[in-house]
Structure to design on (206 residues):
């Protein structure tokens, strides 16, 4: 099994997140109907996570997201002449990304000095991170915050969270896939806000 030291760190591998235009173009390539596109997106992502997991990756979700981002950035070129099921293209890119993660591991991941490896975030740093989270959440519209809590909160059991998501989808009169897409977009914006806030306060993601 490949250990975390045999793979490139996701932060080192990942480029900037895809834009909303690239994401919309990706969905259009997957299916003309947004609901169906959302379903296919979820299926492909689950498939990628399974592929990386079966290969022994300890960061399958990060590599799956990198695969999707890589495809999304080139979908304008791909969609023009591509024939066949889009999922197969994702899987081909996944092969390259997995090999890339292994090849670059030796140069990207080096043992940290003991004094750094043993260092834990200070109370002050954690407080700053919580402040950033509060600030970024406050910037979101009320509905966007509710969607984020339904999808990424940890205060409810799995089954209960699923039921709450269904209730929210029904209240908004959208399908569960459309609601998931909304959550994904909100999360991307939240991550950008947090990154800017952390940078402004001189703290890291770690």
């Amino acid at each position: 099994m490949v250990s975390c030291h045999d793979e490139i760190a996701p932060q080192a591998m990942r480029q900037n997140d895809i834009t909303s235009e690239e994401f919309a173009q990706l969905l259009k390539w997957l299916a003309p109907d947004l609901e169906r596109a959302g379903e296919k997106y979820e299926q492909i992502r689950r498939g990628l996570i399974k592929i990386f997991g079966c290969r022994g990756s300890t960061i399958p979700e990060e590599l799956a997201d990198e695969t999707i981002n890589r495809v999304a950035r080139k979908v304008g070129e791909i969609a023009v002449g591509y024939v066949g099921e889009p999922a197969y293209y994702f899987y081909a890119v996944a092969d390259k990304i997995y090999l890339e993660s292994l090849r670059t591991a030796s140069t990207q991941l080096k043992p940290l000095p003991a004094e750094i490896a043993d260092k834990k975030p200070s109370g002050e740093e954690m407080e700053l991170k919580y402040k950033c989270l509060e600030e970024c959440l406050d910037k979101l519209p009320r509905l966007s915050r509710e969607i984020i809590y339904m999808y990424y909160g940890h205060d409810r059991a799995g089954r209960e969270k699923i039921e709450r998501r269904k209730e929210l989808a029904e209240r908004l009169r959208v399908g569960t896939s459309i609601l998931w897409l909304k959550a994904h977009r909100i999360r991307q914006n939240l991550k950008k806000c947090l990154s800017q806030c952390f940078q402004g306060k001189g703290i890291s993601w770690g």
User: Anything to note?
Assistant: Residues 42 and 177 are 8 Å apart (CA to CA). Residues 1-15, 115-119 have pLDDT under 50 and may be disordered. The two ends are 25 Å apart (CA to CA).
